[in-house]
From TrEMBL:
Pfam families reported for this sequence: DUF8040 (PF26138)
Name under which the protein is recorded: DUF8040 domain-containing protein
Ranges where the DUF8040 domain occurs: 32-127
Record organism: Cephalotus follicularis
InterPro entries for this protein: DUF8040 (IPR058353), HARBI1-like (IPR045249)
Bilayer-crossing regions: none
Length: 152
């Protein structure tokens, strides 16, 4: 190999390395809130009951009972990074204020994909809870009542 070929090879290798480095830019952290993920939930639970009602449309006691009920029934579990309390708080904030995932993403410091995943997980759990709690009443009309229709 002569000198010009070596220079060309070195230049090509240098360009390939620069291109590879350009692809691997460091990720910037966009969620820069002082309160990290679970710390926000702890602040809600230690704060006033009014704050809980305003943010989640539920009293602190009702919220804690709901979380406990879902844990006892094994409908929801803590994941590696998100607790049951945080999952339910995200869900309640979304439906209580008609918030978009972008707003919840900033408040709870999770990705939109994570918010979406846990929103639908809690939604399915709420549907199960509704089937347990909302029982249709039996309708047995009294034929002796004056307002009863004869064909019923």
């Amino acid at each position: 190999m002569d000198t010009t070929s070596q220079i060309i090879c070195v230049a090509i290798i240098y360009m390939l390395m620069r291109r590879a480095q350009a692809r691997h830019l460091p990720r910037n952290r966009y969620n820069t809130s002082i309160l990290s993920r679970n710390a926000y939930i702890l602040e809600l639970l230690r704060g006033s009951d009014r704050q809980c009602i305003e943010l989640m449309r539920m009293s602190r006691e009702a919220y804690v009972r709901l979380c406990r009920h879902f844990r006892l029934k094994l409908w929801l579990h803590d994941s590696r990074h998100v607790s049951v309390e945080e999952k339910i708080a995200m869900f309640l904030t979304i439906i209580g204020h008609n918030e978009r995932y972008v707003i919840i993403k900033r408040r709870f410091q999770h990705s939109s994909q994570t918010i979406h995943k846990y929103f639908h997980e809690v939604l399915a759990t709420i549907m199960t809870f509704a089937r347990e709690m909302i029982v249709p009443s039996t309708f047995e009309p009294n034929p002796d009542s004056p307002g009863a229709h004869k064909s019923l």
